[in-house]
Fold this protein.
Amino acid sequence: MAEREHEHVRVAVIGSGFGGLGAAVRLRRAGITDFVVLERRGAVGGTWHDNSYPGCACDVPSHLYSFSFAPNPDWPRNFSGQAHIQAYLEHVADTFGLRPHIRFHHEVEQAEWDADELRWVVRTSRGTLTADVVVSATGPLSDPKIPDIPGLDGFQGKVFHSAQWDHDYDLRGKRVAMIGTGASAIQIVPAVQPTVGRLTLFQRTPAWVMPRMDRKITGAERWLHAKVPATRYLRRQLLWGIRELQVSAFTKHPGELGLVQRLALAHMKRAIKDPVLREQLTPDYRIGCKRILLSNSYYPALAQDNVDLVASGLREFRGPNTLVASDGTETEADAVVFGTGFHVTDMPIAHRIKGADGRTLAEEWNGSMESLRGASAAGFPNFLTIIGPNTGLGNSSMILMIEAQLNYMVDYLRQLDTLGGRVALDARRSAVHAWSHRIQERMQRTVWTTGGCDSWYLDANGRNTTVWPGTTTEFRRATREVRLEEYTVLRAAPATAGAPDETAPTRKPTRKPAAQPGATSGAGSGATAGGEPAAKPAAPSASAKGAAA
Ligand code: NAP
C-alpha cells in the first residue's frame, strides 16, 4: 500500500524502541501531536523485539531499566527477560496512546535536508513525507554484524546471528558453533547447552564475568510497589545511586576496579576446576575495559562435557561443515550462531541521512561519530539523535541517558517555537568539536582507554565515540536545555526578494562541503571567537590497545 506522497509532519521519529517510544511520549506530553514514528518492523521494541534468542535478558535491573514516567510495579525478576521487556514496551505504546502515530513497515531509506524549505524530505519504503524535525532513535544495537570470514558462503549448515534467531530451527542434538563471547553469547551458551549435541565456543577474547544477583521479585514486594509508589521510587533511586557511585572507578580511578577483578576471578574458579580452561578464560586486560558481563550459568555451562572452548578465534570455514580456528583446530558443525555484535560505531542509518551540504552523516563523521551533547551534528539542522555519540554507559541503565536526551529534544522544539516562523537550528561546528574534544580528553583516564583491551566502544580510528565518561547526573545537567549560542539559527529566505528579516539571522545554508557557520547575529551570536576549527580533534594519543595488558 503506497503512502500518500509528501505528507508533512512537525516531527518524524525513526525507530520504536525505548528511544523512539520515549520520544513519542515526551512529544505528546509537550502538546505535540503532529508527529509520526517510522518503524521498519511490524512491532515496537527495537532491539528488544529483534533479540529473542534463548536466554535473552537484560543485565540492568528492571526497576532502573524502565522509563521513570512509566513505572512497572510488576517486574517479575531483578533482571527481566526479553519477553517481559517487550511486553512492557507494548504496554507503553498502548497506555500512552502512541499506536496512531506509529507507521509499521516503514523503513527509512533516506532523509535529505531541503535547505530552501528548511525541512527534511524523508523517503521510506512506503512513500515519502516531509518533517520539520527528524529524531533518529535507531539505537546502536539495531544492525547485526556478521564478520566477513573466508569460506562462510560455502558452509552448508544453518547460520544465523543472535539478533536474528531462527526459532523454527531445532538445535536439539545438533553440533553448534557459537562465535563470540559478548553479552549475547554468554546468555545463549547456558540456554542451549543442555539440549544441543555438542557446543563449540569460539572465543577471540575472554570476557570478565561477575555473579548475576538475580532473584524473583516476591508478590509482597510487587504488592508494595503497586500500593505504595514511594517504595518503587526508592528502589529505583537506590539502584541508580549505587551505579552513580561506581562511575569514578571507570572514568578516573581504574585501579579501584582491582577488587572487582579479584571477585570475578573467584567467580570463575568456583565453576571451572580445569586449570587449562581457567587459563583460557582469564582475560589479560583490566576489568571494565570491555563491558562487564553478568552470569551465574555461563562458567558452569562451559564446564559441561558437551562443550568445547576454542580459544583462538575463527579463521575460516572449509568445505560444507568445517570451521577452522586461528590455531588450526578444526570443528565440524551443523549450525553456526554469530554472537558478534552490532554496527555500533558505524551506525548504518548515518549513510541514509543527507545534510545541508549534500553529504551523508557517515561522510560528515568520517569514521568517528561526534554530535553536540550527543544529539546534533554540524550541517544537519533540525536533526537529533537519541543515543547519539558518547551517550552509552559502562555500568548503568541506558534509559537514564535516553530520558536526558528526550529533555533536550523537548527543549529544542520549544526553542524553535520561541524563535518563531520557519526556522532551523544547525549545531556550530566549533561547538560540536569543543564538546567532542572535552569528552576525548576525559576519556584518556578511563578504563576504556587505559585498560588494555580492544572493545566495541572504539571506532575504526581508535576513538571511544560510544561511552559517556561521566555520571548520568552530569549528562542530565548537560542536556537540560539547548544553548542557542551553540547553534546557528537558520531562517527560510523571505518570499519577496531583497527584504531580509532584520530581527533574526537570515541564512540560506550553503551547499559547499567545507562551509562553516560564521559568527552569525541574533541568537547565534557570541558563540565563538575567531575561526572555527576545520578538523576533528585528534584521536587520543594513548591507544587503548595493549596499554595495560
Ligand atoms: P559484543 O558485545 O559486541 O560481542 C561480540 C563478540 O563477538 C565478542 O566476543 C567479539 O570478540 C566477538 N567477535 C566479533 N567479531 C569477531 C570475529 N571476526 N571473530 C571472532 N569473534 C568475533 O556483542 P553482543 O554480545 O551481541 O552485545 C552487543 C551489545 O548488546 C552490547 O552492548 C551488550 O552489552 C548488549 N547486550 C546487552 C544485554 C543486556 O543484558 N543488557 C544482553 C545482550 C547484549 P572480541 O571481544 O575479541 O572483539
